[in-house]
Amino acid sequence: MVDTALIGWSRAQFALTACYHWLFVPLTLGLSVIMAVMETLYVVRKDEFWKRTARFWQKIFGINFAVGIATGIILEFEFGTNWSNYSWFVGDIFGAPLAIEGIFAFFMEATFVAVMFFGWDKVSRKFHLAATWLTGIGASISALWILVANGWMQHPVGMEFNPDTVRHEMSDFWAVVTNPVAVSKFFHSVLSGWMTGAVVVIGISCWYLLKKRDTEFARASIRVAAIVGIIGTFAVMFSGDSSAVHVAKYQPMKLAAAEGLEDGGQRAPFSIVPGIEIPGMLSLLATHDPDGYVPGINDLLEGYTAPDGTEVLSADDKMERGALALAAFKAYRENKDTDPEAAAEARKVLEENAGYFGYGYIEDKEDLVPAVGMVYWPFRIMVGLGCLLLLLMAAVLWAEYKGKIEKIRWLHIAAIVSIPLVYIAGQCGWIVAEVGRQPWAIQDLLPVNAAVSSLGAGAVMTTFFIFVAVFTLFLAIELRILVKAIRKGPEKQI
Amino acid sequence: MFGYVFLQHYWWFIISLLGGLLVFLMFVQGGNALIFLAGKNEMQRQMIVNSTGRKWEFTFTTLVTFGGAFFASFPLFYSTSFGGAFWVWVLILLTFVLQAVSYEFQTKAGNLLGTGTFRAFLTLNGCLGPLLIGTAVGTFFTGSDFTVDKAAAGDSLSPVISAWGNGWHGLEAVADIRNVLLGLAVMTLSAVLGSLYMLGNIDDDSLASNIRKHLRWISACFVLFFVAFVVSICLSEGFAVDGSGTVYMEKYKYWHNLTGMPAVLAIFLAGTLAVLYGTVKTCACRNYRRGIWWAGAGTVLAVMALFMTAGYNGTAYYPSVTDLQSSLTLSNSCSSQFTLKVMTYVSFIIPFVVAYIAYAWWSMDRKPVTREEIENTADKY
ipTM, 2 decimals? Predict the structure, then answer.
């Protein structure tokens, strides 16, 4: 029997690492674009002002960058240390994007980030500019491959189960790469990073305006950041819309939990907060049809017939077929060397039920429902903050172009306050995506209780607290260094 | 076009190459191990961290890619070793994580812990990182305490595929002196490489004099540990695999592997001699500063050959001492033929990656690090 405490601590550790990692990565993604645009302005206009501006944001980028790398390496290796079964069961598909990420993206980042930081006096202006862009492009390519991997966990495609090797094996690389869930996740995540970078730059710049110092630098930074942020926000909304359709199609339980939808149907309402609903809105968001059918939690547990006549099995039926698949797998393994006929029969049963293999590990159908509150509220916080931040960026850009930005004190304060809000929105997004997928490590294929390493719960609890201490220390140091660097401000002369 | 056996061997070659590059790039760790030993004052320590600090991302990235390549090509190793030798890998990760932030934070205002603490972290990583990685790789030759049962995936209540046999989860590797010898050899080799790299990359007579003083005894230690490891492994029993996949013990297996694969033996000897040539010439000639290229290239070759000795010629590369048949071989732990083929196409881009790294490296290292640069530039750690 897999220790439930072990599963809990393993999940907690992975969640901790992922949450900390996502504190640092979005700023890297967003700031890389903003500072590259600034450096481009320097090279094109040959104006030292833009060089000083770019250099200041590169300094902020550098302070943040190292902690993102530190948390990222732990995340990658945790697939092996904490999710050993997972690593074998799907490593044939999942390992490839991680290796490609290393070869294509990490080396690009590693090579050009050093040129960007230390190469101002060592390489030509154009080479330096290329290095700055390539650092950002490398970060985005890195995000692409890790999100291909994550997208596959949400919607596994391009593979088949091999009972001889006891794992899923890749059969279509292109299907894995162009997985629609991965594509929308890539745009949604990377462009939310643009939002983060923009909000941070605007917030810090507004602090300078509030203090009435470095105003020219602050206003220039706001102009670039607000444009990048607004573009990013619209793209986030667009990709969020396609994400909703994919979740409805491939992870209906996640959607039902995110909406707290007990009983579904056509013209399903969207819950703004408990008690306030917009009729038909959920159907529109999930299916792009106000009359579309959206199943609720009970429908998914008890089974239902979709309007097009499709019969969807109940959780009990799926678990039964999962148990059949597991039993057939065992029979196949036992007979394959001694009784070919029995093995062939078992394999036939296994193939008929292979799609439900993961359900064989589920003990109680209630386990198939993720923690509703943990998905429902973060979704609303994410969407609400996203809208608020779009308004803020639009207001800031409008005020800047009207030449009033220096005088509107409340806007400065709102922009500073918005810095933690953009991080909360980003964290909520990942909570919706990952908590909503539970109990699955890989949707419908492998639940977390069958994916975990064979370790003592005490060992994982110990590393959990070590990582809490280390990451929190890093965060505290980073924040203090950032505050000092911001107070010091941009260089006056180079 | 690509047979399955060829792909397995090709990917073990890529793993071996990445292993060799990783050990070479651990000159960064080696340099950091000497921050307080060779850096006698603040200026010298700054020159050291600004020399190694402009290359640390390469080492880090190679470590991550080494892990990623193992995951993609030999996922059962990723699953068994990382999930089993848990504490060893967690310790390795922690030391590298401390290193990753220490460069950036060490001299920044408001860094809470002070410059000395972050440099101590760099030194800790410089010593422990290579020591632990070397010790962990030692188990490729000496074996570990684990079992693998893929059929257990059919057990709905306890689907444990790889299980470690003891609660030490990898720390028990230090009980075998051969693992420790390799750990010490890698640690001292990285310090030798760090010294050679800094002698080429930093133009400062007083620091060079300090580095050269330590280079001699560290090199002697490296030779001692390395020879002791190689001799002990060649004289040990090894984990052989027959045509049917059955693992059995064979006396002098690794010696047989070297003599049975003349090309690997040649690579090993060429690499070892290149390391010795680069090191001895640097020790003997006060003005010689190019030792890193000989020793670096030699390291890549020698480490590659060691990995090839562990995996080729019918050898279980990650053996189990508890249950011989649980040992990992190239054929029972690799990815499917389709995945290996896809990854093989991906690997064809590696020369392009190496080319732009070489260009950027050359552009940045044309001028050595000097006192004047450290005193005058704002672009430093």
Answer: 0.93
